[in-house]
UniProtKB/TrEMBL annotation:
<dbReference type="InterPro" id="IPR015168">
    <property type="entry name" value="SsuA/THI5"/>
</dbReference>
<protein>
    <recommendedName>
        <fullName>Solute-binding protein family 3/N-terminal domain-containing protein</fullName>
    </recommendedName>
</protein>
<keyword id="KW-0732">Signal</keyword>
<dbReference type="Pfam" id="PF09084">
    <property type="entry name" value="NMT1"/>
</dbReference>
<dbReference type="GO" id="GO:0009228">
    <property type="term" value="P:thiamine biosynthetic process"/>
</dbReference>
<feature type="domain" description="Solute-binding protein family 3/N-terminal">
    <location>
        <begin position="41"/>
        <end position="265"/>
    </location>
</feature>
<dbReference type="InterPro" id="IPR027939">
    <property type="entry name" value="NMT1/THI5"/>
</dbReference>
<feature type="signal peptide">
    <location>
        <begin position="1"/>
        <end position="20"/>
    </location>
</feature>
<dbReference type="InterPro" id="IPR001638">
    <property type="entry name" value="Solute-binding_3/MltF_N"/>
</dbReference>
């Protein structure tokens, strides 16, 4: 649970942001000052179809947190074939929830991206194996097959991190591209293990009745998971709106932690499948697995990012042959300027 003092502080901050970001003084016919407000229109991008993992954003919209912060927010889900940052860079979106590792890789391609706040404070990457598997540690992956969607994206980076943490190399593990069929691959035994996420693949397998175990990545893994991404150009041109977006989204995450049922209800207005009892139960399990990711080591929700993790991620990804298309300074792809209270 989020301490009451945190929630109180979050709402107080949002109220002050609202006044600072979008209020202007005017004078009435009687000479008395009057307050006029105008909300700044922003579009928040979510990288796939409605899902309870995005409930912090849904709550920020439904509970009026964006509005209180002086924002007229529109939440937009990406199309299935849409690039992570396409709409952001074209100006169709102003803000997107996407993984920090993919933002850093995109920045090496010359994309003007900057992470302005943490969405997840922990990485959800896990190696999933059947309960009867002889694999009990990451080191046990030596000589065995590890299924990944493909040699791209967050799952691939997490697989590489797992291999490094095990003291192995990619020559020691058979990386096998299986698409997004982790559950079937484990059920059919087509690979020895799969790389998945603790609040998605693992939950789906458990709900389906598969007897599996998860081996997590280390807490200090050199990867940044879901983060609040915008362009540096937009952030610098709209500093108050950027701060308001970060703080309101983080306050939405605090609400999801403190009131999971409200988070489920908010998601259900966007995902009609949650009207089914079984589907809602699965979404609840996903949310329960997501909540620990939203909280930092102090058991609080905070948008403040770990600059050291970003720096280590930059070094780690730079060692992957052919991954980065140019030199990139991780400290230029993240900032806490808008996250610190």
């Amino acid at each position: 649970m989020i301490p009451k003092r945190f929630l109180t502080g979050a709402f107080a901050l949002l109220a002050s942001l609202s006044l600072a970001a979008c209020s202007t003084a005017a004078t009435s016919s009687t000479g008395e000052p009057e307050l006029k407000t105008s909300a700044e229109a922003v579009t928040v991008g979510l990288t796939y179809i409605p899902n309870v993992q995005f409930s912090p954003v849904y709550l920020a919209e439904d509970a009026g947190l964006y509005k209180e912060a002086g924002l007229d927010a529109t939440v937009r889900h990406h199309g299935s074939d849409e690039g992570l940052f396409t709409a952001l860079l074209s100006g169709e979106e102003n803000f997107v929830i996407a993984s920090g590792d993919e933002a850093l890789v995109a920045a090496s391609q010359g994309m003007d991206l900057v992470s302005v706040g943490a969405f997840y404070s922990h990485h959800p990457g896990v190696v999933i194996v059947p309960a009867s598997s002889p694999i009990h540690s990451l080191a046990d992956l030596k000589g065995r097959s590890l299924g990944i969607p493909g040699e791209y994206g967050s799952s691939y980076f997490a697989a590489l991190a797992a291999i490094q943490e095990a003291g192995l190399t990619t020559e020691d593990v058979v990386l096998t591209s299986i698409g997004y069929t982790q559950r079937a691959a484990i059920a059919q035994g087509s690979v020895d293990a799969v790389l998945g996420f603790s609040n998605n693949d693992l939950v789906q397998m458990q709900v389906a009745g598969l007897d599996v175990r998860a081996i997590p990545l280390k807490e200090d893994t050199p990867l940044v998971a879901a983060a609040m991404i915008t362009t540096r150009e937009w952030a610098q041109a709209h500093p108050e709106a950027t701060r308001a977006l970060v703080q309101a989204t983080s306050a939405g995450a605090a609400l999801a932690v403190s009131d999971p049922e409200k988070a489920l209800d908010s998601t259900a207005t966007r995902d009609e499948s949650l009207s089914d009892t079984n589907t809602r139960a699965t979404a609840k399990a996903v949310l329960e697995a997501t909540i620990p990711l939203l909280k930092n080591s102090s058991d609080q929700v905070s948008p403040v990012q770990d600059a050291d993790t970003w720096a280590r991620m930059g070094d780690f990804l730079a060692k992957v042959p052919g991954l980065l298309q140019g030199p990139v300074d991780a400290s230029k792809v993240m900032t806490n300027e808008y996250a610190n209270n």
